Amino acid sequence: MQFKLEAQDAGSKARAGLITTDHGTIETPIFMPVGTAASVKAIHQRELKEDIKAQIILGNTYHLYLRPGLSVLEQAGGLHKFNGWDRPILTDSGGYQVYSLSGTRKIKEEGVTFKSHIDGSKHIFTPEGVMDIQRTIGADIMMAFDECTPYPCDYEYARKSMDMTHRWLKRCISRFDSTEPKYGYSQTLFPIVQGSTYKDLRKASAEFIAEQNREGNAIGGLSVGEPAEDMYEMTELVCDILPKDKPRYLMGVGTPANILEGIALGVDMFDCVMPTRNGRNGMIFTTQGIVNIRNEKWKNDFSPLDPGLDGYVSSFYTKAYIRHLFISEEILGMQIASLQNLSFYLHLVQQARQKIKEGTFAAWKTQTIKQVMQRL
Ligand code: GUN
Questions:
Q1: Same domain, 238 and 278
Q2: Is 95 marked as binding a ligand?
Q3: Mutation test residue for ligand 1: of 36, 148, 202, 272, the one with most atoms within 8 Å of CB
Q4: 77 marked as part of a ligand binding site
Q5: What is the model's pLDDT at position 101?
Q6: Where among 217, 250, 272 does a domain terminate?
Q7: Phi/psi class of residue 38: alpha, beta or left (left: φ > 0; alpha: ψ in -120 to 50)?
């Protein structure tokens, strides 16, 4: 993998760059649609490519390991062959999903034992095992195995957890560096900064992560319920320490406003379930603002969903029709909303990239947040 920094904004710390992988180039800043279980929910691969113009999608180690399982993925020749997505894929390590199974998991130095949410069967994830699984999935970008601390989290727990995440990282690195990709293209490993909302821990973690000198770095443990101001403060502190010549990935973030603020602080990559999950619940992001499509207000509104986007669903369907689909529980409603929301997120980061290159990002950001976050 390679990263080329193309431009830096004059009025903020925003950057535009290019990440090159064996499955193609990614223009940053970028939003990565979440495809947890080998599918971006309710979206065809063709739509991802042609309508949404997604450049990279996520997969998840925890879900893929449980279903379809490693044997199927290996026989398919990896996840790209299995789901037909031939552009880059990043897999999260399961270090987040496993923790959200609180009650059915135990964290020890060796790793995490947990019970499957599907059939209750017992499993263990270790740093080494999670590297091997991501080798078998064949992700272009693999994530280190970490513990994402909850919020709030007391200082002592956050410190001990961060230290363990660092020891786990060392184990991930030894396993990664002593194994080969299985499918003939290269893979890379991103470590993850932790440290909860404590400045000294975040600083120590960012320094430790930077020293590992990997090809890209991630910031975890944020967007877990802390105030947005804390998330921005931690992100800024960490970005100022992580190397400038490598991509920075803020995990699990966020709203359109969170993403634009993250970009302003020097983040290059984002992922979040919000556009697809909220879309399936009838919350639709548009260039004009946020639409709750179930609202009575749209019953007789025959204007296009989003005249500000030139994609198919944005201009073809009316709000009244989409509202009808949601009220009648027609699955097409969820498909349209997911497609619109992802198109909007990709358009937003594409525009941000353009503004960074033009040197007008900071003013554009303030104006855009005001517009796109208003409730219509
Ligand atoms: N997704 C969102 N936050 C996190 C995190 O802290 N760790 C991992 N592995 N995934 C995440």
A1: no
A2: yes
A3: 148
A4: no
A5: 76
A6: 272
A7: left
pLDDT at 359 over 90: yes
8 falls within a domain: no
The domain that holds 47 is classified in CATH as 3.20.20.105
What is the pLDDT averaged over residues 81-87? 98
Is 346 found in the same domain as 210?
no
- DSSP letter for each residue of 63-89: HHHHTT-HHHHHHHTSHHHHHT--S-E
Report residues whose beta carbon is within 6 angstroms of any ligand 1 atom.
92-93, 95-96, 143, 146, 148, 192, 220-221, 251-252
Q: pLDDT, tens digit, for every residue of 316-339?
A: 999 999 999 999 999 999 999 999
Phi, then psi, of 97 in degrees rounded to 5: -65, -45
SS3 content of the chain, % helix, strand, coil (to 5): 45, 20, 40
Domain match, 92 and 219 both? yes
Does the pLDDT at position 110 exceed 90?
Answer: yes
Would residue 94 be called left, alpha or beta, if left means φ above 0 and alpha means ψ between -120 and 50 degrees?
left
For the full predicted model, state whether its pTM sits above 0.95.
yes
Altogether, the residues listed in the chain come to a count of 376
225 part of a folded domain: yes
- Same-domain check for residues 76 and 99: yes
Q: Give the pLDDT of residue 100.
A: 80
Count of structural domains within the chain: 2
Tell me the CA–centroid distance for residue 19 and ligand 1, in Å: 21
- Mean pLDDT over 177-188 rounds to 98
| ipTM above 0.90 for this complex | yes
- Which residues form the catalytic set? 92, 271
DSSP state of 216: -
User: Is 95 a residue whose pLDDT tops 90?
Assistant: no
> Residue 375 sits in which domain range?
273-376
pLDDT of the residue at 293: 98
Do 88 and 204 belong to one domain? yes
Are 79 and 211 members of one domain? Answer: yes
